[in-house]
Specification:
This protein is an alpha+beta fold. The protein has 2 domains: 107 residues, 3-Layer(aba) Sandwich (Rossmann fold); 133 residues, Sandwich (Tumour Suppressor Smad4), CATH 2.60.200.30. Helix content is 17%, strand content 38%. It has 5 helices and 17 strands. The strands form 3 sheets. It has a 6-stranded antiparallel β-sheet with strand order 6-5-16-13-8-9, with no helix packed on it. The chain has a 6-stranded antiparallel β-sheet with strand order 12-11-10-7-14-15, with no helix packed on it. A hairpin with a 2-residue loop joins strand 8 and strand 9.
Length: 255
């Protein structure tokens, strides 16, 4: 791949800002509206926000890690940037669309690259009815919350909730409970990527629930529909020796 207009964006942390200034001194850059590739400097959280920002433009993003984990990032180096971009491997990630209806009668739509999660708002456990493609699959889940995760997000919050890690090419979504109380032994489900998952809240006045799609939170929801968004995607670029598919595979063998 060859790129003519490189845009560099950085998190607000001092080390990311310093790295941005150094790269701008060494490489010719273009404004965001003219970019055919974006170089993102920061951690995974900054990468997610950058993906949301450039998703409609479908501009590929090459991240360099200046954060903590850097699962979605490449190693930070000041040299050889153009050469690394030219040999990088592209992976397309499709987000989830969340449509949430609140107790006030409002409807909201948001995109999630990692997951859509439902979380109880008070000390009362949430009670949630789960439908898949319009069919009730679980009449009542008593829990702290529940989520639907993409393969890219399966190694994040989903993994910490003991959900499965999903290879990128598996064509699956993870449906994972968060601290399930009843049914206590239910560990979730793997669903085809074209599934439509609907959560219906039970006893919403006593047991309010919020819905979160990456950075968007809707309070006091009464129902939430989640499905894969087929018309939009984000393209991430990785060094061949550290591509995302290999990283997700390795995560399954970490004790």
């Amino acid at each position: 791949m060859r790129f003519n207009n490189v845009t560099i964006v950085a998190d607000t942390h001092a080390n990311a800002s310093e790295a941005e200034n150094l790269l701008r001194e060494n490489y010719k850059t273009a404004p965001p509206e003219e970019a055919d590739v974006v170089v993102a400097l920061g951690g995974d959280g900054f990468m997610l926000s950058t993906m949301h920002k450039f998703m409609e433009k479908k501009v590929p993003i090459y991240g360099m890690n200046l954060g903590t984990v850097g699962f979605l990032m490449n190693e930070y180096r000041t040299t050889g940037l153009i050469e690394r971009l030219e040999v990088s491997e592209k992976i397309e990630l499709r987000p989830l669309t969340m449509t949430a209806n609140s107790s006030k009668g409002d409807a909201y739509t948001a995109l999630a690259i990692n997951e859509v999660s439902l979380l109880r708002e008070t000390h009362h456990a949430a009670k949630v009815r789960i439908l898949v493609d319009g069919i009730v699959r679980l009449e009542e889940l008593i829990c702290d919350g529940v989520m639907v995760s993409t393969p890219a997000g399966s190694t994040a919050y989903n993994l910490s909730a003991h959900g499965p890690i999903i290879p990128l090419g598996a064509g699956l979504l993870a449906l994972t409970p968060i601290s399930a109380y009843r049914p206590r032994q239910w560990r979730g489900a793997l669903l085809p990527r074209n599934s439509v998952v609907t959560f219906e809240m039970i006893d919403v006045k006593l047991r309010p629930v919020s819905a979160v799609a990456d950075f968007t939170e809707i309070r006091e929801v009464i129902s939430v529909e989640i499905k894969e968004e087929t018309s939009m995607f984000s393209s991430l670029l990785f060094d061949p020796e550290h591509n995302l598919e290999e990283r997700i595979l390795k995560e399954q063998f970490i004790p």
